[in-house]
Protein backbone atom coordinates (compact mmCIF):
# COMPACT_ATOMS: atom_id res chain seq x y z
CA UNK A 1 0.00 0.00 0.00
CA UNK A 2 1.34 3.44 -0.90
CA UNK A 3 2.09 5.86 1.89
CA UNK A 4 0.18 9.04 2.69
CA UNK A 5 3.11 11.13 1.46
CA UNK A 6 3.12 9.36 -1.91
CA UNK A 7 -0.62 9.83 -2.34
CA UNK A 8 -0.43 13.51 -1.38
CA UNK A 9 2.50 14.02 -3.78
CA UNK A 10 0.59 12.43 -6.64
CA UNK A 11 -2.48 14.52 -5.90
CA UNK A 12 -0.36 17.68 -5.75
CA UNK A 13 1.00 16.92 -9.23
CA UNK A 14 -2.55 16.50 -10.55
CA UNK A 15 -3.75 19.75 -9.00
CA UNK A 16 -0.72 21.62 -10.36
CA UNK A 17 -1.53 20.23 -13.80
CA UNK A 18 -5.11 21.45 -13.52
CA UNK A 19 -4.16 24.92 -12.33
CA UNK A 20 -1.20 25.56 -14.64
CA UNK A 21 -3.04 24.17 -17.70
CA UNK A 22 -0.35 23.02 -20.13
CA UNK A 23 -2.37 24.26 -23.09
CA UNK A 24 -1.67 27.90 -22.13
CA UNK A 25 1.98 27.81 -21.13
CA UNK A 26 2.92 30.56 -23.58
CA UNK A 27 0.69 33.04 -21.79
CA UNK A 28 2.07 34.94 -18.80
CA UNK A 29 -1.34 35.01 -17.18
CA UNK A 30 -3.50 32.07 -18.35
CA UNK A 31 -7.14 33.13 -18.88
CA UNK A 32 -8.51 30.77 -16.23
CA UNK A 33 -6.48 32.61 -13.60
CA UNK A 34 -8.95 35.46 -14.00
CA UNK A 35 -11.72 33.07 -12.95
CA UNK A 36 -9.63 32.11 -9.92
CA UNK A 37 -8.98 35.78 -9.12
CA UNK A 38 -12.72 36.51 -9.29
CA UNK A 39 -13.36 33.63 -6.89
CA UNK A 40 -10.60 34.94 -4.60
CA UNK A 41 -12.13 38.43 -4.53
CA UNK A 42 -15.46 36.95 -3.40
CA UNK A 43 -13.76 35.32 -0.42
CA UNK A 44 -11.68 38.43 0.41
CA UNK A 45 -14.14 41.39 0.52
CA UNK A 46 -11.80 43.14 2.97
CA UNK A 47 -9.21 43.60 0.20
CA UNK A 48 -10.94 45.72 -2.47
CA UNK A 49 -7.70 46.31 -4.43
CA UNK A 50 -6.88 42.61 -4.70
CA UNK A 51 -5.06 41.71 -7.92
CA UNK A 52 -2.65 39.12 -9.29
CA UNK A 53 0.20 41.34 -8.01
CA UNK A 54 -1.02 41.43 -4.39
CA UNK A 55 1.62 40.01 -2.03
CA UNK A 56 0.49 36.83 -0.27
CA UNK A 57 3.58 36.07 1.82
CA UNK A 58 7.21 37.05 2.12
CA UNK A 59 10.27 34.83 2.35
CA UNK A 60 13.51 36.00 3.99
CA UNK A 61 16.60 34.92 2.06
CA UNK A 62 19.60 33.84 4.14
CA UNK A 63 22.75 35.98 3.94
CA UNK A 64 25.01 32.96 4.43
CA UNK A 65 27.66 32.54 1.77
CA UNK A 66 27.42 36.13 0.52
CA UNK A 67 30.79 37.14 1.99
CA UNK A 68 31.74 40.10 4.14
CA UNK A 69 29.74 42.55 2.03
CA UNK A 70 26.51 41.00 3.25
CA UNK A 71 27.20 41.72 6.90
CA UNK A 72 25.22 44.47 8.54
CA UNK A 73 22.78 44.78 5.66
CA UNK A 74 19.08 43.99 5.99
CA UNK A 75 18.16 40.50 4.84
CA UNK A 76 16.85 40.08 1.35
CA UNK A 77 13.12 39.40 1.13
CA UNK A 78 11.37 37.63 -1.71
CA UNK A 79 7.72 38.50 -2.16
CA UNK A 80 5.27 35.91 -3.40
CA UNK A 81 2.20 37.31 -5.13
CA UNK A 82 -1.19 35.88 -6.00
CA UNK A 83 0.21 35.19 -9.47
CA UNK A 84 3.08 33.20 -7.94
CA UNK A 85 0.65 31.19 -5.83
CA UNK A 86 -1.48 30.27 -8.84
CA UNK A 87 1.65 29.40 -10.85
CA UNK A 88 2.75 27.05 -8.05
CA UNK A 89 -0.56 25.19 -8.27
CA UNK A 90 -2.07 26.60 -5.06
CA UNK A 91 -5.89 26.73 -5.12
CA UNK A 92 -7.94 29.79 -4.29
CA UNK A 93 -8.85 28.56 -0.80
CA UNK A 94 -5.19 28.10 0.17
CA UNK A 95 -4.20 31.54 -1.17
CA UNK A 96 -7.17 33.06 0.68
CA UNK A 97 -6.04 31.38 3.90
CA UNK A 98 -2.58 32.99 3.59
CA UNK A 99 -3.98 36.40 2.61
CA UNK A 100 -6.34 36.50 5.58
CA UNK A 101 -3.48 35.69 7.93
CA UNK A 102 -1.19 38.35 6.42
CA UNK A 103 -3.67 41.22 6.19
CA UNK A 104 -5.89 40.42 9.18
CA UNK A 105 -9.11 40.28 7.16
CA UNK A 106 -11.96 37.80 7.13
CA UNK A 107 -11.72 34.75 4.91
CA UNK A 108 -15.23 33.97 3.62
CA UNK A 109 -14.26 30.74 1.88
CA UNK A 110 -17.10 28.29 2.61
CA UNK A 111 -16.16 25.97 5.46
CA UNK A 112 -16.53 22.72 3.45
CA UNK A 113 -14.25 23.98 0.68
CA UNK A 114 -11.73 25.36 3.16
CA UNK A 115 -11.74 22.07 5.07
CA UNK A 116 -11.24 20.03 1.90
CA UNK A 117 -8.58 22.14 0.21
CA UNK A 118 -6.68 22.79 3.42
CA UNK A 119 -7.06 19.25 4.75
CA UNK A 120 -3.46 19.18 6.00
CA UNK A 121 -4.27 22.19 8.20
CA UNK A 122 -7.22 20.53 9.98
CA UNK A 123 -6.71 20.11 13.71
CA UNK A 124 -8.63 18.65 16.64
CA UNK A 125 -8.13 18.83 20.43
CA UNK A 126 -5.30 16.67 21.72
CA UNK A 127 -5.64 13.94 24.33
CA UNK A 128 -3.42 13.04 27.26
CA UNK A 129 -1.48 9.80 26.87
CA UNK A 130 1.14 8.68 29.37
CA UNK A 131 3.04 5.42 30.00
CA UNK A 132 0.91 4.93 33.12
CA UNK A 133 -2.08 4.31 30.85
CA UNK A 134 -0.49 1.14 29.42
CA UNK A 135 -2.08 -1.09 32.06
CA UNK A 136 -5.18 -3.25 32.17
CA UNK A 137 -6.82 -1.05 34.82
CA UNK A 138 -6.28 2.13 32.77
CA UNK A 139 -7.21 0.63 29.41
CA UNK A 140 -10.78 2.03 29.50
CA UNK A 141 -9.26 5.50 29.70
CA UNK A 142 -7.32 4.84 26.49
CA UNK A 143 -10.49 3.72 24.69
CA UNK A 144 -12.38 6.78 25.96
CA UNK A 145 -9.62 9.07 24.68
CA UNK A 146 -9.65 7.35 21.29
CA UNK A 147 -13.43 7.66 21.08
CA UNK A 148 -13.31 11.40 21.78
CA UNK A 149 -10.54 11.81 19.22
CA UNK A 150 -12.53 9.85 16.63
CA UNK A 151 -15.64 11.97 17.22
CA UNK A 152 -13.64 15.16 16.65
CA UNK A 153 -11.89 13.79 13.56
CA UNK A 154 -15.10 12.59 11.93
CA UNK A 155 -16.61 16.02 12.49
CA UNK A 156 -13.83 17.95 10.74
CA UNK A 157 -13.44 15.30 8.01
CA UNK A 158 -17.14 15.37 7.12
CA UNK A 159 -16.61 17.77 4.15
CA UNK A 160 -13.79 15.64 2.72
CA UNK A 161 -15.95 12.52 3.01
CA UNK A 162 -18.83 14.33 1.30
CA UNK A 163 -16.53 15.48 -1.51
CA UNK A 164 -15.32 11.90 -1.94
CA UNK A 165 -18.94 10.75 -2.30
CA UNK A 166 -19.86 13.52 -4.74
CA UNK A 167 -16.75 12.81 -6.82
CA UNK A 168 -17.73 9.16 -7.21
CA UNK A 169 -21.26 10.21 -8.15
CA UNK A 170 -19.89 12.60 -10.80
CA UNK A 171 -17.68 9.88 -12.30
CA UNK A 172 -20.43 7.23 -12.26
CA UNK A 173 -22.85 9.63 -13.99
CA UNK A 174 -20.29 10.59 -16.67
CA UNK A 175 -20.31 14.20 -15.52
CA UNK A 176 -24.08 14.74 -15.48
CA UNK A 177 -24.46 14.95 -11.68
CA UNK A 178 -22.34 17.63 -10.03
CA UNK A 179 -22.69 18.13 -6.30
CA UNK A 180 -22.48 21.63 -4.87
CA UNK A 181 -19.36 20.92 -2.83
CA UNK A 182 -17.64 19.36 -5.85
CA UNK A 183 -18.48 22.42 -7.95
CA UNK A 184 -17.25 24.85 -5.26
CA UNK A 185 -14.04 22.87 -4.73
CA UNK A 186 -13.34 22.76 -8.47
CA UNK A 187 -13.79 26.53 -8.75
CA UNK A 188 -11.03 26.86 -6.18
CA UNK A 189 -8.78 25.32 -8.84
CA UNK A 190 -10.15 27.46 -11.67
CA UNK A 191 -12.44 24.75 -13.06
CA UNK A 192 -15.91 26.20 -13.58
CA UNK A 193 -17.73 23.39 -15.40
CA UNK A 194 -17.74 19.70 -16.32
CA UNK A 195 -15.01 18.46 -18.59
CA UNK A 196 -11.61 16.77 -18.54
CA UNK A 197 -10.23 18.94 -15.72
CA UNK A 198 -13.20 18.40 -13.42
CA UNK A 199 -12.96 14.68 -14.18
CA UNK A 200 -9.26 14.71 -13.28
CA UNK A 201 -9.99 16.41 -9.95
CA UNK A 202 -12.97 14.15 -9.18
CA UNK A 203 -10.92 11.03 -9.90
CA UNK A 204 -8.32 12.07 -7.33
CA UNK A 205 -10.84 13.22 -4.73
CA UNK A 206 -12.60 9.86 -5.04
CA UNK A 207 -9.40 8.20 -3.75
CA UNK A 208 -8.68 10.10 -0.53
CA UNK A 209 -7.01 7.07 1.03
CA UNK A 210 -5.85 8.66 4.26
CA UNK A 211 -9.31 10.19 4.84
CA UNK A 212 -10.93 6.80 4.21
CA UNK A 213 -8.55 5.14 6.68
CA UNK A 214 -9.04 7.72 9.44
CA UNK A 215 -12.83 7.66 8.98
CA UNK A 216 -13.01 3.85 8.99
CA UNK A 217 -10.96 3.73 12.20
CA UNK A 218 -13.13 6.43 13.73
CA UNK A 219 -16.35 4.53 13.02
CA UNK A 220 -15.00 1.48 14.84
CA UNK A 221 -14.84 3.53 18.04
CA UNK A 222 -17.77 5.94 17.58
CA UNK A 223 -20.47 3.60 16.29
CA UNK A 224 -19.75 1.05 19.02
CA UNK A 225 -19.01 3.56 21.78
CA UNK A 226 -19.16 1.92 25.19
CA UNK A 227 -19.79 -1.58 23.83
CA UNK A 228 -16.25 -2.78 23.20
CA UNK A 229 -14.95 -5.86 24.93
CA UNK A 230 -11.50 -4.97 26.23
CA UNK A 231 -8.46 -7.27 26.04
CA UNK A 232 -5.04 -6.52 27.51
CA UNK A 233 -1.87 -8.56 26.96
CA UNK A 234 1.63 -8.08 28.28
CA UNK A 235 4.79 -10.11 28.78
CA UNK A 236 4.99 -13.42 26.94
CA UNK A 237 1.32 -13.26 26.00
CA UNK A 238 1.92 -10.01 24.07
CA UNK A 239 4.98 -11.54 22.42
CA UNK A 240 2.93 -14.55 21.29
CA UNK A 241 0.32 -12.26 19.75
CA UNK A 242 2.81 -9.99 17.99
CA UNK A 243 5.71 -12.27 17.08
CA UNK A 244 4.58 -15.91 17.15
CA UNK A 245 6.02 -17.70 14.11
CA UNK A 246 3.77 -20.74 14.40
CA UNK A 247 1.77 -21.44 11.21
CA UNK A 248 -1.84 -20.35 11.33
CA UNK A 249 -5.02 -21.15 9.48
CA UNK A 250 -6.48 -18.47 7.23
CA UNK A 251 -8.63 -16.13 9.29
CA UNK A 252 -12.29 -16.86 8.57
CA UNK A 253 -13.73 -13.66 10.04
CA UNK A 254 -14.41 -15.10 13.49
CA UNK A 255 -14.13 -12.46 16.23
CA UNK A 256 -13.55 -12.73 19.99
CA UNK A 257 -16.59 -10.44 20.41
CA UNK A 258 -18.81 -8.33 18.12
CA UNK A 259 -16.66 -5.28 18.87
CA UNK A 260 -13.49 -5.06 20.87
CA UNK A 261 -10.12 -3.53 21.52
CA UNK A 262 -6.82 -5.28 22.20
CA UNK A 263 -3.89 -3.47 23.81
CA UNK A 264 -0.73 -5.61 23.56
CA UNK A 265 2.15 -4.01 25.49
CA UNK A 266 5.70 -5.26 25.00
CA UNK A 267 9.11 -4.57 26.48
CA UNK A 268 10.61 -1.57 24.59
CA UNK A 269 13.97 -3.37 24.53
CA UNK A 270 12.36 -6.18 22.53
CA UNK A 271 9.93 -4.15 20.45
CA UNK A 272 10.86 -0.52 19.79
CA UNK A 273 7.22 0.34 19.08
CA UNK A 274 6.16 -0.84 22.54
CA UNK A 275 3.30 -2.96 21.22
CA UNK A 276 0.11 -2.32 19.26
CA UNK A 277 -3.55 -1.46 19.68
CA UNK A 278 -6.10 -3.42 17.64
CA UNK A 279 -9.80 -2.66 17.38
CA UNK A 280 -12.50 -4.45 15.43
CA UNK A 281 -16.18 -4.16 14.60
CA UNK A 282 -18.64 -6.67 13.21
CA UNK A 283 -20.67 -4.76 10.62
CA UNK A 284 -22.71 -7.71 9.36
CA UNK A 285 -21.53 -8.27 5.79
CA UNK A 286 -17.99 -7.19 6.58
CA UNK A 287 -15.54 -6.82 9.44
CA UNK A 288 -13.45 -3.71 10.11
CA UNK A 289 -10.08 -4.21 11.79
CA UNK A 290 -7.85 -1.25 12.65
CA UNK A 291 -4.29 -1.27 13.97
CA UNK A 292 -1.78 1.28 15.22
CA UNK A 293 1.58 0.96 16.97
CA UNK A 294 1.72 2.23 20.54
CA UNK A 295 4.33 4.91 19.77
CA UNK A 296 2.24 6.12 16.82
CA UNK A 297 -0.87 6.08 19.01
CA UNK A 298 0.85 8.27 21.59
CA UNK A 299 1.99 10.74 18.90
CA UNK A 300 -1.45 10.73 17.31
CA UNK A 301 -3.34 11.58 20.49
CA UNK A 302 -0.89 14.36 21.32
CA UNK A 303 -0.72 15.79 17.77
CA UNK A 304 -3.58 18.06 16.70
CA UNK A 305 -3.16 17.36 12.99
CA UNK A 306 -5.76 14.92 11.70
CA UNK A 307 -3.71 13.10 9.06
CA UNK A 308 -0.67 12.23 11.19
CA UNK A 309 0.22 8.65 12.18
CA UNK A 310 -2.36 6.98 9.98
CA UNK A 311 -4.21 3.87 11.08
CA UNK A 312 -3.83 0.60 9.20
CA UNK A 313 -7.35 -0.48 8.27
CA UNK A 314 -8.53 -3.84 6.94
CA UNK A 315 -12.10 -4.45 5.73
CA UNK A 316 -12.98 -8.10 5.19
CA UNK A 317 -16.05 -9.03 3.16
CA UNK A 318 -17.57 -12.09 4.83
CA UNK A 319 -19.13 -13.43 1.61
CA UNK A 320 -16.38 -12.90 -0.96
CA UNK A 321 -13.46 -13.19 1.52
CA UNK A 322 -11.97 -10.16 -0.25
CA UNK A 323 -9.87 -7.93 1.96
CA UNK A 324 -9.58 -4.19 1.32
CA UNK A 325 -6.57 -2.75 3.12
CA UNK A 326 -5.42 0.79 3.86
CA UNK A 327 -1.97 0.03 5.23
CA UNK A 328 -0.54 -3.19 6.62
CA UNK A 329 -2.56 -6.37 7.10
CA UNK A 330 -0.42 -7.47 10.06
CA UNK A 331 -3.38 -6.96 12.36
CA UNK A 332 -5.17 -9.93 10.76
CA UNK A 333 -2.42 -12.28 11.94
CA UNK A 334 -2.37 -10.69 15.38
CA UNK A 335 -6.12 -11.06 15.79
CA UNK A 336 -5.87 -14.72 14.77
CA UNK A 337 -3.24 -15.30 17.46
CA UNK A 338 -5.41 -13.55 20.05
CA UNK A 339 -8.30 -15.86 19.19
CA UNK A 340 -6.00 -18.89 19.49
CA UNK A 341 -4.72 -17.77 22.91
CA UNK A 342 -8.25 -17.14 24.19
CA UNK A 343 -9.33 -20.59 23.03
CA UNK A 344 -6.41 -22.18 24.90
CA UNK A 345 -7.05 -20.26 28.12
CA UNK A 346 -8.84 -21.79 31.13
CA UNK A 347 -12.65 -21.59 30.88
CA UNK A 348 -12.96 -19.27 33.85
CA UNK A 349 -10.79 -16.93 35.93
CA UNK A 350 -8.63 -18.87 38.36
CA UNK A 351 -9.21 -22.26 36.71
CA UNK A 352 -6.21 -24.59 36.83
CA UNK A 353 -5.54 -27.88 35.11
CA UNK A 354 -5.44 -30.81 37.55
CA UNK A 355 -3.17 -33.83 37.59
CA UNK A 356 -4.57 -37.17 36.51
CA UNK A 357 -4.21 -40.05 39.02
CA UNK A 358 -3.16 -42.57 36.39
CA UNK A 359 -1.05 -40.46 34.08
CA UNK A 360 1.21 -37.46 33.68
CA UNK A 361 0.03 -34.01 34.63
CA UNK A 362 -1.68 -31.96 31.94
CA UNK A 363 0.35 -29.04 30.62
CA UNK A 364 -0.78 -25.67 31.87
CA UNK A 365 -2.16 -23.26 29.35
CA UNK A 366 0.20 -20.74 27.77
CA UNK A 367 -1.86 -17.91 29.23
CA UNK A 368 -4.47 -17.37 31.86
CA UNK A 369 -7.35 -14.94 31.75
CA UNK A 370 -8.29 -12.79 34.68
CA UNK A 371 -10.48 -9.76 34.99
CA UNK A 372 -9.65 -6.28 36.11
CA UNK A 373 -11.72 -3.14 36.06
CA UNK A 374 -11.20 0.57 35.88
CA UNK A 375 -11.04 2.05 39.41
CA UNK A 376 -14.00 4.16 40.40
CA UNK A 377 -12.87 7.60 41.71
CA UNK A 378 -13.78 8.10 45.35
CA UNK A 379 -14.36 11.37 47.12
CA UNK A 380 -13.06 10.85 50.65
CA UNK A 381 -14.63 14.08 51.80
CA UNK A 382 -17.89 13.60 49.94
CA UNK A 383 -21.23 12.49 51.36
CA UNK A 384 -21.76 8.83 52.23
CA UNK A 385 -25.50 8.69 52.75
CA UNK A 386 -25.87 5.00 51.89
CA UNK A 387 -22.66 3.50 53.19
CA UNK A 388 -24.34 0.11 53.57
CA UNK A 389 -24.74 -0.20 49.78
CA UNK A 390 -21.05 0.20 48.95
CA UNK A 391 -20.16 -3.53 49.05
CA UNK A 392 -22.89 -4.44 46.54
CA UNK A 393 -21.35 -5.40 43.20
CA UNK A 394 -22.45 -7.79 40.51
CA UNK A 395 -21.14 -8.93 37.17
CA UNK A 396 -23.20 -8.35 34.01
CA UNK A 397 -22.37 -10.64 31.11
CA UNK A 398 -22.17 -9.36 27.54
CA UNK A 399 -25.53 -9.20 25.79
CA UNK A 400 -27.43 -7.61 22.92
CA UNK A 401 -29.98 -4.86 23.52
CA UNK A 402 -32.44 -2.97 21.32
CA UNK A 403 -31.57 0.70 21.79
CA UNK A 404 -33.89 3.54 20.75
CA UNK A 405 -32.18 6.32 18.72
CA UNK A 406 -34.34 9.49 18.65
CA UNK A 407 -32.11 11.08 15.98
CA UNK A 408 -33.05 8.42 13.40
CA UNK A 409 -36.42 7.47 14.86
CA UNK A 410 -35.86 3.73 15.18
CA UNK A 411 -34.34 1.01 17.31
CA UNK A 412 -30.94 -0.54 16.65
CA UNK A 413 -29.61 -3.76 18.11
CA UNK A 414 -26.36 -3.02 19.93
CA UNK A 415 -23.89 -5.14 21.87
CA UNK A 416 -23.38 -4.35 25.55
CA UNK A 417 -20.00 -5.67 26.61
CA UNK A 418 -19.41 -7.47 29.89
CA UNK A 419 -19.10 -5.15 32.88
CA UNK A 420 -19.49 -4.85 36.63
CA UNK A 421 -22.34 -2.89 38.20
CA UNK A 422 -22.06 -1.63 41.75
CA UNK A 423 -23.41 0.97 44.13
CA UNK A 424 -21.36 4.13 44.58
CA UNK A 425 -20.76 6.03 47.79
CA UNK A 426 -24.11 7.82 47.47
CA UNK A 427 -26.11 4.87 46.24
CA UNK A 428 -25.78 5.73 42.56
CA UNK A 429 -25.39 2.94 40.04
CA UNK A 430 -21.83 2.73 38.70
CA UNK A 431 -20.80 0.57 35.76
CA UNK A 432 -17.19 -0.55 35.65
CA UNK A 433 -15.85 -2.00 32.38
CA UNK A 434 -14.23 -5.41 32.41
CA UNK A 435 -10.78 -5.97 30.94
CA UNK A 436 -9.79 -9.48 29.95
CA UNK A 437 -6.10 -9.69 30.79
CA UNK A 438 -3.80 -12.26 29.26
CA UNK A 439 -0.49 -12.95 30.95
CA UNK A 440 1.98 -15.77 31.53
CA UNK A 441 0.96 -18.12 34.37
UniProtKB/TrEMBL annotation:
Top-rank taxon: Bacteria
Protein name per UniProt: Uncharacterized protein
Source species taxonomy: Bacteria, Bacillati, Actinomycetota, Actinomycetes, Mycobacteriales
Amino acid sequence: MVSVAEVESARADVFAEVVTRHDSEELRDPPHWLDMLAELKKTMPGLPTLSLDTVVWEQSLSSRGRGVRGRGKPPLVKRHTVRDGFADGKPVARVAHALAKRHGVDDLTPWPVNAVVNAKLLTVPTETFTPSMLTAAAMPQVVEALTRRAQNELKVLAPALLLEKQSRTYLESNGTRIGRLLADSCRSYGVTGPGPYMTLLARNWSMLYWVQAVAAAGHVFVEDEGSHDLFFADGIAAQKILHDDMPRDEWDGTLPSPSGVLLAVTDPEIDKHGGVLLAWRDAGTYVDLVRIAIDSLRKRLQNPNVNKSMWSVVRLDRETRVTDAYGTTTGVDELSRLIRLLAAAPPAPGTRHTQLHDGPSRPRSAVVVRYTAKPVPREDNGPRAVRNLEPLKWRVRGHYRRQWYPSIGKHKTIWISEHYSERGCDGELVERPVVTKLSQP
